[in-house]
Amino acid sequence: MLIKSFFGPAITxxxxxxxxxIHKEIPIRVPEPETAFLHIYRxxxxxxxxxxxxxxxxxxxxxxxxxxxxxxxKASAVSPVTGVVSQxxxxxxxxxxxxxxxxxxxxxxxxFDPGFRKxxxxxxxxxxxxxxxxxxxxxxxxxxxxxxxxxxxxIVYGIDTEPxxxxxxxxxxxxxxxxxxxxxxLRPLFRGCRIFVAVPPYLEAMARxxxxxxxxxxxxxxxxxxxxxxxxxxxxxIPAGRRIEELGVAFVNAETLVAMAEAFESGTPGVRKxxxxxxxxxxxxxxxxKIGTPVGKVFSAAGIHTSPGDLIVQGGPMTGxxxxxxxxxxLKNTEALFxxxxxxxxxxxxxxxxxxxxxxxxxxxxxxxxxxVRVLENGLxxxxxGLYDLDACIECGLCSYVCPAKIPxxxxxxxxxxxxxxxxxxxxxDVQG
Length: 433
Ligand code: SF4
Ligand code: SF4
Description:
Elements: E1 28-29, E2 35-41, E3 59-60, E4 65-70, E5 73-78, E6 83-92, E7 98-106, H1 115-121, H2 129-133, H3 141-146, E8 153-157, H4 167-174, H5 176-189, E9 194-199, H6 204-209, E10 213-216, H7 226-234, E11 249-253, H8 254-266, E12 272-278, E13 284-290, H9 295-301, E14 311-314, E15 321-323, E16 336-340, H10 358-362, H11 369-377, H12 381-387, H13 398-402, H14 409-432
Parallel strand pairs: 1-13, 8-9, 8-11, 9-10, 12-16
Antiparallel strand pairs: 2-7, 3-6, 4-5, 6-7, 12-13, 14-15, 14-16
C-alpha cells in the first residue's frame, strides 16, 4: 500500500461564511412526530434476519436503551420517544450497508426511562457509554472506552465540518456555559484527558470562556475535517486505515457535550438535535428536532414545500447522501438537510475519465484518484485498496466536486471502501473458522 503524506488540496475555494450573529438564532422547534424511526447500524452483520429480542408491540419510554442481538452481535440505540414498536425490519442503505429499522408509534403521554440515571451511578463509567453513543453527534464512546489505549485528548468541534452547516458554531456561541459543563462531565469519564476546542477565528473569544485549550481552524473546506485538523493544528498524520481513536485522540461535537451535560442534569439522555435546513432558494434555517423525526415533518415545521423530483440531501453539501423518501428520519449525526430543485440537480455521468488530473490536484490525501477511479469502476476493490491508496481517502468528496466529466468518484470510493471491508472481514472469519 502506498502511504502518502497530506500536501493539502490545490484548490482554494469553499470558504465558510462568517456567522457573526449566530448566537442570536432561535432554532425552529419541530413537534414530536406521530411515528419515529430508529436506525441501528452494526458493522459486519446482516440484519435481514436474526433479530432476537425486539418485538412489534413492545412498549418503550423516552431514553430507554434498546439492546438487540443481531446474529449474535450486540448493538443498541436509545428510544427518543415514548410509544409502541410498530415495525422492525432489516434494511440495506448507502453503499450496501445493512441496518435495523425500528418504527415507534408515539404516545403523547411521555414517560422517561430511569436507565441513564442508574447507569450514571455505576462507578467505572462503562454502563453509561451506550447511552452516550446515542447522543446527537458522531462519537463512538463505547469503542473508545473499550480501547486498551487511553484517550489523551478530545478535540471538540466548535466549527462545522462542511460549509453552510451551523450546528456546532451555534452551540458554541449560544450555549457556551452548557458546553463548559459538558466538558466537566467528560473529564472524569476519561481521566487525564486534555480538551481542545477547534473554532473558526470569529469564535475564538467565545471558545476561551469554556476554559478548554483553543485551536483556531481556517474555515475553509476540507481543513475542517478531523484528519486535516490533526495535520495542520497538531502536525500529526493519521496513518491510512487507522482510526484516530486508536492513536489516543477523539473528536466530539459541541452539541454532544451540551447534550451530555443535560443528560447528567436531568437523568435522561438528550434525544433532540439541531440541524441546518437549506431551502431550494438557498435560505438556511436552524431547526431542533427529535432524533427519529421523519424529514418531511422537519420541512413542514420550517414551512418548506418540496415537489416530486426534488433532490433531498442528508448531511453536508460535500459528503451528504441523497434520500428518496421524506419518511427518512433525522439521525443522531444528521447535521443538515439540503433541498435542490429538480432542474438544478447536478447531473452525474457514466462517461469515461478524460484524465484531466483535477481530482488528483484537489485530493488532500495525495491519492492518484484518476487511477483509483478506473479500478473502482471495474469493481476491483482489492486493487483499489492495495495499489491505489483507497484506505488513505479522508472522504472529503472534493474529487467528485471538481470532476469535469461528472463521474460520481466519491460514491465509487465509498462503495469501494465498503466492499474492501466486507472482503477483509470474510477473509478474517474464514481464517478464524
Ligand atoms: S474523497 Fe476524493 S479527494 Fe477526498 S480524500 Fe478521498 S480520494 Fe481524495
Ligand atoms: S477529475 Fe474526473 S475526468 Fe479528471 S482525472 Fe479525475 S476522474 Fe478523470
